[in-house]
């Protein structure tokens, strides 16, 4: 129950954060979408044993946090909810890859290096995706997708799924609250009632979806979801996109931590 309430509050928090008026929030949604796609593409393009080359890409979410004035703690909580899935994806690598590599005089399994690389990549990409929603909002993201000529039906499905998943969570939490009141002192739901419980959720979902559609039809919904007016691209938007792309390309071509380390040791000598 508490987890569902937290999920619901997290979704509302992202919508509230997207209404801020900071430098990052005023950047054109299409530019922020393309910048995030470029960031994700470059981060996942590194080979599986790369760790040091990924470190400069931490600056992207750090600067977005700083300039958008988004609180770090609630975003980190959302990321921590996904971390078990990320660990589950990479935890088998140390079991299958036993080859060794020497780092700083210490023999380390390549499997653990692969696991750490996957962990960093997933954490960076999840953080960038959450920050994109938190600084843009789903309505403006949908408008940006339409500007990229993404088919209307896909954008509409994405938008309605995001918008009404909170309604589904509310229905489930209401049923769980009713169940706990009828079975005081019981932890969780018994396995024997999960079938009827899931069936009731399905039926209530259909009924709620029908009521939502009727309400939308009465308000003139004809299959087109209006996301509001989007301003034209400005020189500031293009400069923002060009600056980040230049940084991504430089950080991808050159291993900046190794380069700085070599420069520093050269000065010491």
Automatic annotation (TrEMBL):
<feature type="transmembrane region" description="Helical">
    <location>
        <begin position="153"/>
        <end position="169"/>
    </location>
</feature>
<feature type="transmembrane region" description="Helical">
    <location>
        <begin position="112"/>
        <end position="133"/>
    </location>
</feature>
<feature type="transmembrane region" description="Helical">
    <location>
        <begin position="27"/>
        <end position="45"/>
    </location>
</feature>
<keyword id="KW-1003">Cell membrane</keyword>
<dbReference type="InterPro" id="IPR012809">
    <property type="entry name" value="ECF_CbiQ"/>
</dbReference>
<protein>
    <submittedName>
        <fullName>Cobalt ABC transporter inner membrane subunit CbiQ</fullName>
    </submittedName>
</protein>
<keyword id="KW-0472">Membrane</keyword>
<dbReference type="InterPro" id="IPR003339">
    <property type="entry name" value="ABC/ECF_trnsptr_transmembrane"/>
</dbReference>
<dbReference type="InterPro" id="IPR051611">
    <property type="entry name" value="ECF_transporter_component"/>
</dbReference>
<dbReference type="GO" id="GO:0005886">
    <property type="term" value="C:plasma membrane"/>
</dbReference>
<keyword id="KW-1133">Transmembrane helix</keyword>
<feature type="transmembrane region" description="Helical">
    <location>
        <begin position="241"/>
        <end position="268"/>
    </location>
</feature>
<feature type="transmembrane region" description="Helical">
    <location>
        <begin position="51"/>
        <end position="68"/>
    </location>
</feature>
<feature type="transmembrane region" description="Helical">
    <location>
        <begin position="75"/>
        <end position="92"/>
    </location>
</feature>
<keyword id="KW-0812">Transmembrane</keyword>
<dbReference type="Pfam" id="PF02361">
    <property type="entry name" value="CbiQ"/>
</dbReference>
């Amino acid at each position: 129950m508490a987890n569902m309430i937290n999920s619901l509050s997290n979704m509302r928090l992202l919508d509230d954060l997207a209404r801020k008026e900071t430098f990052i929030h005023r950047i054109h949604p299409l530019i922020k979408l393309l910048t995030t796609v470029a960031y994700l593409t470059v981060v996942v393009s590194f080979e599986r044993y790369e760790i040091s080359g990924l470190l400069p890409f931490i600056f992207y979410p750090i600067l977005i946090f700083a300039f958008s004035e988004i609180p770090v703690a609630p975003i980190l909580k959302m990321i921590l909810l996904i971390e078990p899935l990320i660990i589950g994806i990479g935890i088998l690598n140390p079991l299958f890859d036993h080859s060794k590599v020497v780092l700083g005089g210490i023999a380390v399994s390549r499997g653990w290096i692969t696991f750490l690389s996957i962990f960093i990549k997933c954490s960076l990409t999840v953080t960038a995706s959450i920050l994109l929603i938190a600084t843009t909002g789903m309505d403006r993201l949908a408008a940006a997708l339409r500007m990229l000529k993404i088919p209307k039906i896909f954008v509409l499905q994405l938008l309605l799924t995001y918008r009404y998943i909170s309604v589904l969570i509310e229905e489930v939490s209401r049923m769980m609250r009713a169940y706990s009141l009828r079975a005081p002192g019981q932890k969780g739901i018994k396995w024997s009632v999960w079938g009827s419980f899931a069936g009731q959720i399905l039926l209530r979902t259909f009924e709620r979806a029908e009521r939502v559609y009727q309400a939308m039809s009465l308000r003139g919904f004809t299959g087109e979801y209006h996301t509001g007016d989007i301003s034209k691209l400005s020189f500031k938007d293009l400069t923002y996109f060009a600056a980040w792309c230049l940084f991504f390309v430089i950080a991808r071509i050159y291993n900046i931590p190794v380069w700085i380390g070599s420069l520093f040791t050269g000065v010491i000598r």
